[in-house]
Amino acid sequence: MAYVSVKGGADAIANAKELVEFYRLRKRTQPLEIKQIQSQFRLAIDKVMGEGSLYAPEYAALALKQMEGDVLESAFVLRAYRATLQRRYYSDIISTREMFILRKISSSFREIPGGQVLGPTRDYTQRLIDSTKYNESPEEIDQFLKEFDGKIDREKLVDVNTYNKVIDLLKAEGLLMPAEKSYDKTVKDVTLEAIKFPAPRSVTLQMLARAESGGLMALAYSSMRGFGDGHGTIGELRYGAVKVRITDTKGRKRYIGSINVTECEMITKINTTKESKIPYFAIGYGLVFGQNETKAICMSILERGIRSGKKENPSNNQEFVLYHTEGVEAMGFTNHLKLPHYVTFQSGLNNVRESVKRNQEETEDKMKVYKELAKQQQQ
Q: How large is the angle between the packed helices 201-209 and 293-307, nearest 10 degrees?
């Protein structure tokens, strides 16, 4: 195996691919079904779809299986697949106000429209290894689902409602900062147009929505620690299903399905200035595919920081944030270091050798002079 992995030319690529498959399959375990991955790795699927910039759960699950659980590699191949697809329509603007709520919380207000809906979350659980899942059986799963269903009182079920947003409370009191006069409402598509800075908010939101989750978290955390514009409070965090509609070639509105998204509206306080003497509240916004609350929160922090106009901190600098959280591009550039750099390195190596040799020669010449001077002084 070691031999075939280093053979040259096209054979090396083919053998490397076989070797990867060998390591994935060598234990001869039961193959994972795509539906299993979709169902039990749903949060990983959501990350892959978000960073891969394509809402396609089955393909995200396939990519995750192919890449042995590596989310970055999975997002890479999913985005590459997306680039091959024909673009037939642009969807209409989705409305999160009509979201089918699965989870809805606010850390700014206790009482919010529709109440706090905790939903599916591990926020209030102990993050400890659960050894009972080591030998989980289908019978145990059926038993759990049966018991869960038995706890539902169907007589108390109510019709599904939509809810007003928390920011509506601030708007009603006139506490939100008015839109900046310089606000650029231009809508651009980052998959079709090269980015130019300063970029409009539409570009910022697109880039952050498909950015690498860990990269966003690192910069958002730096902002909260004082290397950015501030420390906000979650006005509202929503997770649920929203309807997607398109307008067909005859101008008719068509409902084509729904997607799960996480939305975060972060409330930050704006300090007074000479131009604005009122300490308004401002909103940072985050919207991502699936349930990825950490990413949505970090996105809202960075989005607000970028709009603050204070570029001295890295987490507020639009170009710095958007370029360095682009996971697929960052991973590609980082991993290109594994490719041969023989010529450039040898060139640098020769330069260093020449410099070291020159320095040694100069040192030897100086030592000769010092020795000569020492002899003359002794005489």
A: 150
CA atoms within 13 A on the CB side of 316: 16
| Dist. CA 187–CA 244, nearest whole Å | 19
State residue 371's pLDDT score: 81
Of 106, 103, 107, 105, nearest to 119 (Cα)? 103
| Other CB atoms within 10 Å distance of the CB of residue 81 | 16
Does residue 17 have a pLDDT over 90?
A: no
Beta-carbon contacts of 219 under 8 Å, excluding residues fewer than 6 positions away, are 228, 298, 302, 314, 315, 321, 324, 325
Task: Measure CA 256 to chain center.
Answer: 26
Distance CA 216, CA 303 (A): 11
- 195-212 as b/e: b if 16+ CB within 10 A: beeebebebbbbbbbbbb
- This prediction has a pTM of 0.88
Assess contact for 84 and 78: CB atoms under 8 A.
no
Whether 164 and 236 have beta carbons less than 8 Å apart is answered as no
SS3 259: strand
Over 50: is that where the pLDDT of 2 sits?
no
Token pair of 92 as six digits: 């209409």
Pairwise CA distance, residues 162 & 228, whole Å: 35
Which DSSP symbol is given to 102?
A: E
Answer whether 42's CB lies under 8 Å from 68's CB: no
Q: Which of 285, 303, 296, 235 is nearest to 260 (CA)?
A: 296
C-alpha to C-alpha distance for 244 and 100, rounded to whole angstroms: 12
Percent of the chain with pLDDT over 90: 65
Gap between the Cα atoms of 143 and 374, Å rounded: 95
Dist CA 311 CA 316 (whole Å): 5
Instruction: Return the half-sphere exposure (C-beta side, CA atoms, 13 A cut-off) of residue 326.
Output: 19
Is 280:177 a contact under the CB 8 Å cutoff?
A: yes
Q: What is the pLDDT of residue 1?
A: 37
